[in-house]
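This part of the workshop introduces the protein records we will be handling. As an example, a complete record with its sequence and its structure tokens follows.
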Amino acid sequence: MQVSVAYVGDLAQSWLELQVDDSSTVADAIEQSGLLTQFPEINLGTMKVGIYGKFTKLDKPLQDGDRIEIYRPITRVLDEDDDDDDD
């Protein structure tokens, strides 16, 4: 079956389409994609993954056409407009 794996890093992004076995899981497809080698900052022990924007587990079985997404942690930088002292 055909699935895709997407990841957006700090400096680069990747969206790969690949063929996987019908019994493949999210983890299997990510491993097969090569993204773990291409982006060594990916840590599946701490980063969330999803299918079409919905969080899922690494052991979830895939369906044909699934788009697997690896999510980076979100960091927020406060700017001057976020200052609470402006009351």
